[in-house]
Write a sequence for this structure.
């Protein structure tokens, strides 16, 4: 992507002078999602409204991010965004909002100094669930995590985002500088509150003298982010090269739908993101719960059920009438009644749009991606709905009980066509072992405390779960869903 002039006829290229853009956002975790979402919004704000003060400094902290760093460094931070609808592919868009890039393992002190610079007004993050280092059972910050323990000994060679932030804010305090907004854009419940709790807990244990300054000089808004962004495939690179004459080592593919809602809780200043469609609200909960319990739960359900059947992509599972009937009924009967803070019209519109997004044949989102780290996803996306139902003493959680039973069978690692698949999860050994033990004693799978807590003691739920697991052990998933939909099991 060295010669921008050569591709202007085939793609939308930045209409601003990138040399004039001032960096005031540091983003940690330059994932595909960040590039399809936050960097996209920032590009539009710079381009359409001449907001030259909010360029992005991309920062990656993990050795596993080296490929991303090398590619974007080689391409001067530029990359192609390929937006695909169900019936068309939009003209590719070259995104130019990432104007700096740092790689922590290569030079940790350079990253710390950049984060400490007063020009940085917002530090945003997409570090995924495991980046918060939460205890699997208590949900609190895990001070005993090996990476945390290592940087206590060597604080100027951090391994976690908290280590980097701590050293950066120590420098700000020492130099008499102000703080900034820390903006989590991760797909977890109460992401800002979670980041605040984890970070302040880390600091209280490792740098307690910094704690009062942090409480006065930082804010942690909650956010809701939404845009389906699959893994980039080689065929996307080939199509870009053959159809548009663009050679990009790592383009990003996404759907056209996008949404970003942010709690209006910034430290001092913020970008005028509302000019490009971002909503600032006082309470993020209604939007967050709707997205997590419908979209993300829907993805996980199609992922587990579809993989068992032998499907490989979301759109395959979503275009199966039996699977989608199961999902629609789950959303109508079991999720919608729990979304008491959201407007009914908004919920119904979101559900309708969601089904068409899942069916998009051009996104080609893999079920293996959806199912990865399910042990972290299912408690947030599905069991959170169950918690509400149990607290209200409702018994209308048949779909959830069926899904958990299907997830147990999923961890056998063989689909109904006899083909094996990988269980990609940080606790895969536990999942596989407990699923195997459930062949003889069905309760065993529910005894994974880090996921289910005390659910194994809830007799009404376990009765349903036992029934569905027994059925699934003797029938294929397709037949099981058909009979479930017909109220025959």
């Amino acid at each position: 992507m060295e010669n921008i002039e050569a591709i202007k006829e085939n793609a939308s290229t930045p209409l601003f002078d990138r040399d004039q853009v001032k960096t005031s956002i540091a983003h940690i975790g330059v994932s595909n999602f960040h590039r399809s979402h936050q960097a996209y919004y920032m590009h539009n704000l710079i381009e359409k409204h001449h907001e030259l003060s909010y360029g992005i400094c991309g920062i990656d902290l993990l050795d596993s991010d080296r490929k991303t760093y090398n590619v974007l460094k080689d391409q001067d931070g530029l990359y192609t965004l390929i937006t695909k609808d169900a019936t068309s592919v939009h003209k590719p868009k070259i995104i130019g909002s990432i104007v700096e890039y740092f790689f922590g393992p290569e030079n940790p002190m350079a990253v710390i100094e950049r984060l400490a610079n007063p020009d940085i007004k917002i530090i945003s993050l997409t570090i995924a669930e495991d980046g918060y280092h939460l205890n699997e059972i208590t949900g609190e910050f895990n001070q005993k995590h090996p990476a945390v323990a290592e940087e206590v000994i060597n604080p100027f060679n951090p391994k976690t985002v908290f280590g980097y932030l701590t050293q950066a804010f120590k420098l700000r305090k020492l130099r008499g500088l102000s703080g900034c907004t820390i903006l989590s854009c991760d797909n977890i419940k109460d992401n800002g509150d979670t980041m605040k709790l984890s970070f302040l807990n880390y600091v209280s244990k490792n740098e307690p003298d910094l704690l009062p300054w942090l409480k006065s000089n930082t804010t942690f808004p909650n956010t809701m982010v939404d845009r389906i962004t699959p893994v980039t495939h080689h065929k996307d690179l080939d199509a870009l090269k053959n159809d548009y004459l663009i050679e990009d080592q790592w383009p990003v593919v996404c759907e056209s739908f996008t949404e970003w809602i942010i709690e209006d809780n910034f430290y001092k200043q913020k970008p005028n993101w509302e000019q490009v469609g971002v909503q600032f609200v006082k309470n993020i909960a209604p939007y967050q719960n709707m997205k997590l319990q419908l979209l993300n739960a829907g993805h996980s359900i199609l992922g587990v059920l579809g993989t068992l059947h032998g499907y490989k992509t979301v759109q395959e599972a979503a275009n199966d009438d039996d699977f989608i009937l199961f999902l629609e009924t789950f959303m109508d009967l079991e999720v919608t009644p729990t979304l008491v803070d959201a407007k009914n019209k908004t919920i119904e519109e979101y559900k309708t749009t969601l089904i068409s997004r899942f069916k998009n044949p051009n996104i080609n989102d893999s079920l293996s991606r959806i199912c990865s780290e399910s042990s972290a996803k299912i408690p947030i996306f599905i069991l959170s709905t169950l918690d509400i139902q149990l607290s209200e003493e409702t018994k209308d959680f048949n779909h959830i009980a069926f899904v958990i039973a299907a997830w147990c069978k999923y961890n056998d690692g063989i689909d109904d066509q006899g083909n094996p698949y990988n269980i990609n999860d940080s606790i895969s050994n536990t999942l596989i072992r407990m699923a195997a033990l459930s062949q003889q004693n069905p309760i065993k799978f529910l005894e994974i405390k880090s996921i289910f807590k005390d659910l194994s003691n809830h007799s009404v739920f376990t009765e349903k779960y036992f029934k569905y697991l027994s059925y699934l052990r003797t029938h294929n998933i397709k037949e099981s869903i058909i009979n479930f939909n017909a109220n025959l099991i």
